[in-house]
Amino acid sequence: MTVKTVAIVAIALVAGAVMFPGCITQEEAESANMPIVLFTDFGTESYWVPHLKGIIYSVNSDARVIDGTHEITAFDIREGAFLLYLAAKDFPADVVFIGNVAHPREGRYIVLTTDKGQISVGPDNGLFTYIIRNFEVKSVYRISNQSLFTKPPNSLFASQIIGTIGGLIASGFAPKDVGPAVDDPYTVDAHEASIVERKIVGEVVLIDHFGNCITNIPRNMTEEFGLRFGDEVIIVTHDAEIAAMVGTRYQDVPEGNPVIFVNRLDLAEIAINMGHFANTHNIRTGTIIEIEIKA
């Protein structure tokens, strides 16, 4: 067989690998790099976003990077944790989440894997709270392997640590090789929704761009409690009692009026039609709320 013939055969094999989805080579090529999804409080106007991406591409030039969001409220770990959890529910297996909000406790960064086949990289400050609570955690490792960095990790910016490790893991680097196993990843205190003495008690887990407050109260709890369309309720917060109506959407009440309904996440949401509920009533993520049907 001539060199020219060998070359032609090689080209044909490569073309076949691209054209036919059942080819092993194509499958290997597709699985060589897991998508990387970014969740930070850096802000889209910040240099830290391209800096983080530059670090990722420096260690993994074939990386596939997706911007989840960089608009998590600054330092709001609870908000970031809930958004990461929502993404983990929606994304399939073989995805690497890189998250960063605020600073880590004791300077500790971790890599966490779950039974869904997803991997999360970020500070050990509670950012993975809802992932830990809602998925089976398979392993957690502390990032401390000095050989993976040009400088000691404790002298690097967060983006340098999580970008390097996230980029490497997406390309196939084993999570267990980043450092020792951890059995106590930090989680923030979260109030479980419950029915107590004719009240539903829950907490605000997310405030969206419009000031609507999403709670951790699930649909089945509102049904068990007996909330029905048109009911008048009292919403009690840390410093106010707010009259609202049970609806199915914002427009079920006049503009400027509060409404509570179960949203597309199957969670109770409290809002003001064409208004900002959070600002109006000084609500933050973590605010405990009580709901009772007006007598």
Give the CATH class of the largest domain.
Alpha Beta
What radius of gyration results from the CA coordinates? 24 Å
Helix-strand sequence: HHEHEHEEEHEHEEEHEEEEHE
What general outline do the C-alpha atoms trace?
A: elongated
Helix content: 25-40%
How would you sum up the major sheet? 7 strands, mixed, barrel
Q: What topology, given as strand order, has the largest sheet?
A: 8-9-13-12-11-10-14
CATH topology of the largest domain: Rossmann fold
Number of domains: 2
Number of DSSP strand runs: 14
Task: Tell me the name of the CATH homologous superfamily of the largest domain.
Answer: S-adenosyl-l-methionine hydroxide adenosyltransferase, N-terminal
Tell me what the CATH architecture of the largest domain is: 3-Layer(aba) Sandwich
Distance separating the two termini: 91 Å
Helix-and-strand structural type: alpha+beta
Mean pLDDT: 90
Report the sheet-strand fraction. 25-35%
Continuous helix count: 8
Keywords: S-adenosyl-L-methionine, Transferase
Domain S-adenosyl-l-methionine hydroxide adenosyltransferase C-terminal: 202-289
Organism: Candidatus Methanophagaceae archaeon ANME-1 ERB6
GO molecular function, one term: transferase activity
